[in-house]
From TrEMBL:
Superkingdom assignment: Bacteria
PROSITE patterns referenced in this protein's UniProt entry, alphabetically: RHODANESE_3 (PS50206)
Rhodanese domain ranges (all copies): 14-103
PANTHER family: FAD-DEPENDENT OXIDOREDUCTASE, RHODANESE-RELATED SULFURTRANSFERASES
Protein name: Rhodanese-like domain-containing protein
Entries under InterPro entries matching the protein: GlpE_sulfurtransferase, Rhodanese-like_dom, Rhodanese-like_dom_sf
Amino acid sequence: MNLSQEEWIAQLAADKNAVILDVRTEDEFNDGYIENAVNIDIHKGQGFIYEIEELDKNKNYYVYCRSGARSAKACQIMNELGIENAYNLLGGILDWEGETVQS
């Protein structure tokens, strides 16, 4: 499900069962990420699938990438793997107006 930045932030703030998921590369992640985000690179192919399958299917996942395209694909894959609540941040971190953290 695609959410605007405002919807994503509001829903995330109210969600006690939330996990923020960054599906960019490790290098992109290290350049700056949304606080508390977990990084699983969608470009890992089958490795990405394995890591997603290990996630708690009862959690709600707030997914983002650079522009919103990879995270939309990631949400689709997550849905296919049985994670019902995956929310894509439209516009990705490029449009993100909130804080970011450097690692």
